[in-house]
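Repro case for the chain-ordering regression, as requested:
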Amino acid sequence: MKYAYYPGCVAKSTAPELYNSTALIAQKLGIELVELTAASCCGAGVTNEGNSFLNTVLNARTFAMAENMGLNILTICSTCQGVMRQVQWQLDNDPKLFGKTNEALAEINMKYQGRVKIKHLLWALIEDYGLDKLVQQVVKPLKGLKIAPFYGCYILRPVEALQYESHEKPTSFERLITALGGEPVEYDGKTKCCGFPILFVQRSTAFEMASTYLNNARQAKADLMVTPCPLCHISLDLYQKKAQSQAGFDINLPVIHLSQMVGYALGLEPEKLGFSKHMISTAKVLREL
Amino acid sequence: MTAQEAVFRILRYNPERDASRRYETYRVKIDNRMTVLDALEDIKHEQDASLSFRRSCRSGICGSCAMKVNSLAKLACKTRVVTEVENHGEVLVEPMDNMPLIRDLVVDMNEFWREIDRGTPWLEWDNTLEGSSKENLLTNEQQQVSGRLADCIMCGCCFSDCVSRIFDKNFAGPASLAKVHRLVADPRDKVGANRVPALVGLGLWACTHCYFCWSQCPRDVRPVAAISVLRALSFKQGDESHGARHVNAFMNSIERTGMLNEATLYLRTMGWTTIRDFDLILKMAVKGKAPLPFPRPVPKIDEIRSIFRLAHEVKEK
Amino acid sequence: MIKHDVIVVGAGLAGLRAAIEAREKGADVAVLSKLHPVRSHSDQAQGGINAPLGEDDSWEKHTFDTIKGSDYLADQDAVEVMCKDAPRAIIELEHWGALFTRFDNGRIAQRPFGGAGFPRTCFAADKTGHVLQTTIFEQSRKNGVQMYEEWFATSLVVEDNVCKGLTAIEIVTGEVHAVEAKAVILAAGGAGQVYNKTSNSLSTTGDGIAMAYNAGIPIEDMEFVQFHPTTLYGSNILVSEGARGEGGYLVNAQGERFMKKYAPDKMELAPRDIVARAIETEITEGRGFANEYVHLDLRHLGEAKINERLPTIRELAIYFAGVDPVKEPIPIQPAQHYTMGGVPTGMNGVTPVKGLYAAGECACISVHGANRLGGNSLLDTVVFGKRAGAKAAEYAKEASATGFPEKPLQNEQKRIETLLNRKDGVKASEIKRAMGSTMFDKVGIFRQKRDGETAVKNVAALKRQIETVSVMDSSRKFNTSLIETLELGFELDLAEVIVAGALARKESRGAHHRTDYPKRDDDKWLKHTLAVRTADGPKLSYKPVTITRFKPEARGY
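-- result from build under test --
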């Protein structure tokens, strides 16, 4: 398994634990990641609201880069995944846009051919690596730990663009958690929004979103929450204390990245996986394991 | 077509009888074609006449029968029972969210209609044309954007499942903003793009991109996409709100370095209010997570800057 | 007490157009509707709205096509008015923002429709009703038209042949109100739900026509019920005539385009009554599929055209019939679709009762006579809705309020209370089911004496049964069982009138076809039926047809 690796911006700045743990599990599982260091930010859905053509071309350039390498793209951020798939879906279904975009790319001697596949780590583990194979690599099963998967938005919707699983009844996270020995928890909000897109714009609303869904998971007896998106992670972990302070109740639910969860089960050291980098301490959970 | 039975768990509430909401279970014989509406009619006529719900056309165009089926807002007449049973085992039927409950599956949609009205949702047509015997000349292409948005049947599904609306009652919601876009995109509307400045007050930047409105809309209107376009228009018009500043900061960061630098993004969007998060920034710094506001550009940054130039030129056209 | 100059019952195209006009003329007008306006049945129209816009077309040609289509029962002066006003009406809608499909030159596109000698049907893909209803609703909001949404009108209050207003249930609270008005415009639509196989919505229950009938007003031409040839087998959801207008074929189980036998010139685009009878004949003579349906084949139109012109039909066929018209033919069968009859009016919506007006499908002017051409109903609503609105406003300006009698409200409140409190009784749904099948089987596309007499007996029995119906829900607030039961009352009244008219009319004309009297008989039957309510059932009388330009001729296509 070899991918053109698109870590996204947050993994390289405020979530270094995501970047590092991904590198570690890739190594462990024999997945070769060739980083697209010259790629631009995907725009996170925000650039699209400044100039939508700009958004399209910037991402098409990333696609072209991977196509030049003859590799598919692996993402570790739902937002990157969602944005890029939306752009790709538009390009693939709008010949005029496709033409215009390639005209622009031609100015920098690049071309988008429409061949590259873009996959999130969650899907790659299930589809490409295989859960059965992954189970065999599990050294430290998550021992019935109650884990609340927070899918969030961008990895599920719009379904036409992402074309991976039903947003109504997604199962990939639950299957992964179970394969790693954990117990997935059902709660209202697992496919809802963490509030990150409006965190800088309407802070109190974002806090309310985060605290509501975190609390729902907590009330459903979750020990831990896991997310496939570092932007969700910012809202759910980085700002959890502020969110709960606004809400007026305690939550204290540790939130970790997908790669950290997988890494732990594969037997990698929690410290190396960056478990201590979180705002909400994972110490208690680690002790229980 | 096999005859099977399905279990319907339906929220019931009669303000004249019930102190609070409750759930009742009904079993219904179903076949492969039956819709949730068919089943509700069956239950009402054969088992429980007191079950109240709205319905009319039973063909997905009037919008009356919007309700939550297995926790997502849908039109009952366009929701197949076997699909729901396959995915969820049972069929949970509840009234829409974000609107007060009147009885059983009937919600008070006045809140929804008020939000629609906030967008002055009618074409301001050129009344010098009154009495003229000729139509405005328009091509199908010119009507394409409006056409999709005008497919809206005002069912309320998007409003029900809008996450931002749950927490922000000032946010006019997806249907209202989609309607504004329908009018902005219509060359015959005299107000046109001048409708946009008022939208900040309607919560233009409060949409959190959860995409529920896109996935739940039975007519494929895609309100969230309309909101993005309206935001782009607002941005172009010189919108000074936080949301627009955020867009500006984002684009700036990418143009200069190719990546998003949280530090500069944060400072540019939040300005002096950054001070609120000083404690957080400190903690992040200790853990090695605080980005410095002096980012290095990615390799081949020139390519990225070329694209910016090109895209701005295209936009000007 | 709620009081307005003008009250419009029904918020579809006719009702809202009337309200906009009345308001423009300075009246204090309010619209009363049992549904939110955007849910009205007008919203479901698909195919289009007629107007002689083309250079090679003319109002005379449109008038002729309409009159011939009506099998010469239409009142020709009214048809002339409608066709002359059609271009103005369409252009007005376009100015207001209607998103009509266009020709390449930017003009409003037009397509051929049944019984038309020229392609004069303007359309918005196949969602014309939705587009027009949205447009008119928007403009009614712009003009500040007041609405009473989810108010169910239960009776008209008429005293000394003067309309005083009506009684209505505010559905949310269940309260029965008196609504006083100097002028009332009935625009509550047709009565499709009298039949079990109908394209009409579940709410199309003939309320306006029945209220007029119950108030002693004779209702006109009720036996003329249009059966639309193409509705989806199973659900009877409408498949627009536009599909045939765009070139679709009707094919039987032997692979024949059978319309060749029935209308060799117009083929699939013959008027609806002819096509419906053709399909029904094919099926009953064993050339249908499963003895239930024939095929509407659109495959040769190609995916691009279907997506551009008939996207709604494609979606409906896929979802409700499990068939993608791009790949497979659609299973279709005829079903009830339109009520040509209704409250008799002149050309300005004026009825025999002072202060009472009617417009749209619930009115009978008559512009559609014995059979309506596709695309003429939407036209009818906006042309005559406007005229009724203007006339009602004018009347209201002159008229003085004469007070609202107490008794009607008390009677209604008592009647409804009795209904609500009756614990045991017959189920309304059972009565409805029996009525629907009797009507479709016995007073449907092909009629004859014995069936008609059976229907008379069956309907009479059902009318007795409904006297002991139980709503089975005694709540006041949002009691939909109550509403359905009251609607059933209206439907049964109209069923009785339809049967009587059909049995009495010993000829075949337009949509009324009798196998025992298969020919049109102008000598004896070139006249409109009027039915007035008596204690012994409907009493029939007749009135002449207004003929101006076109002498009745043989009607072949």
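Ordering looks correct now. Chain A is about 50% helix and 10% strand.
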